[in-house]
Write a structure and sequence with these properties.
The chain is an alpha+beta fold. The chain has 15 helices and 23 strands.
Length: about 450
């Protein structure tokens, strides 16, 4: 009975907190949005062969009634996100309409700001407001949320709605979104401090007067960060390939970079963008005339081949390429290999070919992963840190009823030799994982290891 009362109370609280969200869509619009997404996935999703197609279709059928009866636009889009999460792809997701997205809060509460970070499957207090540093000590673990163990709360209320390509990216995103809610929504959390003391705290989403985080991350919003680290080691933080200014900012630093005896390139905050921007920088880091870039493919359809192939069996494809194509088309597994071109190095000017460590991590994604792959055969460049995000590709983007956006990955990228990294991540040459203790001490473990490596390998 107590459990039922608790669930009912949580339901009432969640409903009240999002009472400001309207129900603008009629049942026909809701079913159309669901059906449009299901259709486009079936036709365009490049990894359709990785999922259980029968389960995908049966889930779609069961969701028709569910989305038709959703009470508001937020619940409708949450249903779509849950459906999309079945595909387990970081480049395939559903975004809320802007008017709903702007209402959601993750780290801002009435009195405090709180950011959480995943460390080995634990939700750790990563940043707080300066005023909350004693109440919520850095390094504290959130062990319960709304009277449920954190792991159970994530499994029930967070993970089912998140689309990622790797398990560790899923853990990261779940922890980051753990306390997501609307203004007025209250979370009762229990934390275990670094001294193993338990505290129960109530946090209510609102516009916090304390806007600054503690500790403040230096240069967190910079597209490019440059500094000297001693021992003639230059540090270059390439934090995004989404902004074309990254190339001009890099070129402005060339007079300094030419003085470096060794170099650290930090891609740990780089979630991707445009390959061309990363490749324009990479041209300065090699004497080679070309580099091995990614290979790409996409699904291809010929309607009549699908018709002809529906009656074929695998044995009918033996030594018959036409039948093989028909069979694969009928089973949504025919792939067209896009033309491959290596990355041609057109820059013939002065280069920075010195020992280089590229720092990478779970947030290194998409175009930043393509950058990593292009360095794969460069003996003076080593990769250090944690596995990359494991998600890249080219989404097909379209608008859903109510103003939300759907993204469906249409392009499969691999290493030039066919090795796959989507769903697995690019593996560093030297793996370095930051411990909670090092984090609490303010130590950047990977950066320290990179400096030590470069000093020892002059």
């Amino acid at each position: 009975m107590a459990k039922l009362n608790l669930c009912f109370a949580l339901l009432i609280l969640a409903s009240a907190s999002r009472s400001q969200v309207p129900n603008t869509l009629n049942p026909a619009d809701k079913i159309y949005g669901l059906s449009r997404f299901w259709q486009e996935v079936n036709y365009n999703f490049v990894y359709l062969n990785r999922i259980d197609n029968a389960k995908w279709d049966s889930t779609y059928r069961s969701m028709i009634k569910e989305v038709e009866e959703t009470p508001d636009d937020y619940t409708y889009y949450r249903s779509l996100q849950k459906f999309c999460a079945m595909l387990k792809d970081g480049h395939t997701h559903i975004e809320f309409p802007p008017q709903i997205d702007s209402m959601l809060m993750v780290s801002m509460f009435d009195n405090y700001r709180v950011k959480l970070k995943n460390f080995n499957g634990k939700a750790i207090v990563y940043q707080t407001s300066l005023s909350a540093k004693d109440l919520l000590p850095l390094g504290s673990e959130v062990v319960e949320v709304n009277h449920l163990p954190t792991k159970m709360y994530i499994e029930k209320y967070v993970a089912p709605y998140i689309a990622t390509s790797t398990s560790y990216a899923m853990e990261d995103q779940c922890v980051y979104n753990l306390l997501e809610g609307f203004k007025g929504q209250t979370f009762t959390i229990t934390i275990k401090t670094p001294q193993s003391k338990l505290k129960t705290i109530q946090l209510t989403h609102g516009q916090s007067g304390d806007q600054k985080y503690y500790p403040n991350e230096q240069n967190d919003d910079k597209t490019l960060d440059f500094k000297w680290l001693g021992h003639n080691i230059a540090y270059l933080g390439l934090n995004s390939f989404a902004d074309p200014s990254i190339v001009s900012l890099f070129k402005e630093k060339l007079p300094e970079l030419y003085k470096a005896k060794s170099l650290i390139i930090d891609l740990r905050k780089n979630g991707g963008g445009n390959d061309d921007f990363g490749y324009a920088i990479l041209q300065y880091l090699t004497h080679d005339k070309s580099l091995n870039a990614i290979r790409s493919s996409t699904r291809q359809h010929l309607g009549v081949f699908k018709a002809w192939g529906s009656d074929l069996a695998p044995k009918d494809t033996a030594r018959n390429e036409t039948n093989k194509r028909k069979y694969l088309d009928a089973h949504n597994e025919y792939y067209y290999s896009l033309p491959y071109w290596p990355l041609m190095i057109t820059n013939t000017g002065k280069k920075i070919v010195v020992p280089v460590v590229v720092l990478m991590g779970h947030n290194t994604a998409s175009a930043a992963e393509d950058f990593l792959i292009a360095t794969d055969n460069q003996k003076h460049i080593i990769k250090m840190g944690e596995r990359s995000n494991g998600s890249t590709g080219q989404p097909y983007v379209f608008t859903l009823p109510g103003g939300g956006t759907a993204y469906i990955c249409t392009k499969k990228d691999t290493y030039f030799d066919g090795r796959e990294f989507v769903g697995y991540g690019v593996k560093p040459d030297i793996e370095v994982e930051q411990s909670i203790n090092d984090f609490v001490k303010g130590q950047d473990t990977a950066l320290i290891k990179a400096i030590d490596y470069l000093i020892k390998n002059k």
